[in-house]
Write a structure and sequence with these properties.
- By secondary structure, this protein is of the alpha+beta class.
- It has one domain: Gcn5-related N-acetyltransferase (GNAT) (Aminopeptidase, 3-Layer(aba) Sandwich), CATH 3.40.630.30.
- The chain is 30% helix and 40% strand.
- The chain is built from four helices and seven strands, in the order E-H-H-E-E-E-H-E-H-E-E.
- The chain has helices at residues 11-21, 28-35, 80-94, 109-117; strands at residues 2-5, 40-47, 50-60, 63-71, 99-105, 121-130, 135-143.
- It has a seven-stranded mixed β-sheet with strand order 1-2-3-4-5-7-6, with helices on both faces.
- A hairpin with a 2-residue loop joins strand 2 and strand 3.
- The chain starts with a strand and ends with a strand.
- Bound molecules: coenzyme A (COA).
- Coenzyme A is lined by residues 21, 69-71, 76-82, 104, 108-111, 113-114, 117.
Length: 145
Amino acid sequence: MEIRKMQKEDILQLAELEKLCFSDPWSVSAFEYELNNPLSLWLVAVSGETVAGYVGSQTVIDESDMMNIAVAPAFRRQGIAKRLIDSLILGLQERGSHTLTLEVRSSNEPAISLYRQLGFIQVGRRPNYYRNPKEDALILRKEWS
Ligand SMILES: CC(C)(COP(=O)(O)OP(=O)(O)OC[C@H]1O[C@@H](n2cnc3c(N)ncnc32)[C@H](O)[C@@H]1OP(=O)(O)O)[C@@H](O)C(=O)NCCC(=O)NCCS
């Protein structure tokens, strides 16, 4: 499994994975925008031609936000999300960022355990942040020096 930066050729597969994983999926044009946004860093995990997972972020000055992460059902529980986030943090460190913040649905236990295992700490809660279905977001953050 190779981890590398997202490329234009990956976008159709990313949009398909979004539909599979989320009730409110990102569109092809949203990914195209991210590809051309200098503030963004998106990584994909690829096995041959197949995109198994991806993670995306935006950084303003020295603080980053995770926009999204997903791993295809057939590739889950193999440590891919963990590798994607570790690689993302290395890339963000190189850009001079010192913190990564994310929102997660309060019922998303797999993702919450992943983030806790990686040292993210809850710093807040946004009531009714999500739609389809309506749900609170937990705000988690990891900082490094
Ligand atoms: C959350 C998600 C990205 C995890 O991807 P993954 O590649 O399977 O995760 P990893 O294999 O790297 O798991 C690392 C750790 O996370 C936790 N974890 C992952 N999936 C879990 C699950 N289904 N149940 C409980 N803990 C889980 C475990 O602590 C795991 O370590 P372990 O396997 O040694 O026990 C994946 O389930 C997914 O794509 N879900 C749908 C999209 C989503 O919810 N994204 C998050 C949006 S905020």
